[in-house]
Amino acid sequence: MSEHNAHPPSGDSHDHYQGHHGEETRPGHSTLKGYMIGFVLSVVLTAIPFWLVMANVIEGSGLTALVILAFAAAQIFVHMVYFLHMSPQAEGGWNLLALIFTLILVFIALAGSIWVMYNLNVNMMPGVMSEPVLEMQSQ
């Protein structure tokens, strides 16, 4: 048997799972109060952008979109902290590293998709494609 699986010598009352009895008080685990804080923050972070759009508070649609994206990023953060219990201390930092890797992949996929769609839009516009033909016909 390996050392990890071996039983502790007699007299040693160390239990592998002994440190897990008070998990609700450890960072990364939540109580009802923590879940309620997360819920209230989520509702507020949803209601404010809804009100901004419905009341037409901000005139420019581009600025409104940026404000809504900022609220969305804040809500993602709230969900990760209060509901997914992600923190730099959780799982020895591996959760945070996996999150960073995922964000990089999502950014590459989104940026690449937008780049491809933009180039397709610019290069396949009917007005752009017919201009050289019209110039050749008028000569």
Low-confidence stretches: 15-25
Radius of gyration: 27 Å
Q: What number is the mean pLDDT?
A: 78
Number of strands: 0
Number of helices: 4
The major pleated sheet works out as:
none
Q: What separation lies between the terminal Cα atoms?
A: 90 Å
Can you offer a commentary on this structure?
The chain is mainly alpha-helical. Among the domains are: 31-85; 91-123. Helix content is 64%, strand content 0%. It has four helices and no strands. Helix 1 (32-54) packs antiparallel against helix 2. The longest helix has 30 residues, at 94-123. It is flat, with a radius of gyration of 27 Å.
Using brief descriptors, characterize the structure shown.
single chain, 139 residues, mainly alpha, 4 helices, flat
Element layout with pairings:
Layout: H1 32-54, H2 61-83, H3 94-123, H4 126-138
TL;DR of this structure?
It comes from Marinobacter antarcticus. InterPro entries: Cyt_c_oxidase_su4_prok, Cyt_o_ubiqinol_oxidase_su4, Cytochrome_c_oxidase_bac_sub4. By secondary structure, the protein is mostly helical.
